[in-house]
Amino acid sequence: MNVLAICAHPDDVEIWAGGTLAKYAARGDRVTIAIATNGEVGSPTLPKEEIAAIRHQEAIAAAKHIGAELIWMGYPDEFLFDTEGTRLAFIEAMRASGAEVVITHWPDDLYNPDHTITGRVANDVAIMTTVPNIVTASPKLDKIPIVYFMDSVAGLGFQPEEYVDITETFETKKKMLAEHVSQVGDWLQEQYGSNAMEMIEVTSRFRGIQSGVCYAEGFIRAKAYPRNITGTLLP
């Protein structure tokens, strides 16, 4: 199966869906990570171009842990908007990856507008990926991908409807996140007083308690005609 995780910033997908992507990859699925913005404001000291380049390399290193492909969209950090160009870029990411499953931000996650826009656009354009008259570099998909929303920051306001047991891939999730040195050891602590490693330990353990396993990640599937399914496509 072809799986696309499309997120707003470098490190987002590792925090909220890294264990699930590792589980997909371990069973042989093709995993692609698309990052909408370049992370250029994610440093208290470095200029935009320098921190963006660093974060690009961190994202590449994180993806390598599970053999995932990386799509770097390069939109300005904190200034992602729902435009025709953005929609076409998201459609192209889905087509280029052959996405059958798309994992993205929950649109009601109010932590950051880039998260909100990414989740909304990803869900909105999924139905457009099969339309021949919407032309991008890659050919149209034969089937509309199924969209899953990943957890919100700190789990605020998010009640998972499906859980993935990531007990066996939790260490891989931590290794992926650890590649984002500029964020884990610097920016998030400086800006929010937040330890990202501690956050994934607590939230993954809490979702695990909710679902009866050691560590878990929670999701909500987008439910809309004509892309409802029975069962689940989560690993």
Walk me through this protein's architecture.
The chain is an alpha/beta fold. The chain has one domain (2-221): LmbE-like (Rossmann fold, 3-Layer(aba) Sandwich), CATH 3.40.50. The chain contains seven helices and seven strands, in the order βαβαβαβαββαααβ. It has helices at 12-26, 48-64, 84-97, 113-126, 170-178, 181-192, 196-211; strands spanning 2-7, 30-37, 69-75, 101-105, 146-150, 162-165, 216-221. The protein has a seven-stranded mixed β-sheet, sandwiched between helices. The protein is globular and about 45 Å long. The chain starts with a strand and ends in a 14-residue tail after the last strand. It is an enzyme of class 3 (hydrolase). This is PIG-L deacetylase family protein.
| Chain-averaged pLDDT | 95
Q: Domain count, please report it.
A: 1
Secondary-structure-based class equals alpha/beta
Question: How far is it from the N-terminal to the C-terminal residue, by CA?
Answer: 10 Å
Looking at CATH, which topology would you report? Answer: Rossmann fold
Which homologous superfamily in CATH is the superfamily? LmbE-like
Number of strands: 7
Spatial extent as radius of gyration: 16 Å
**CATH architecture field:** 3-Layer(aba) Sandwich
For the largest beta-sheet, the strand count, sense and barrel status come to: 7 strands, mixed
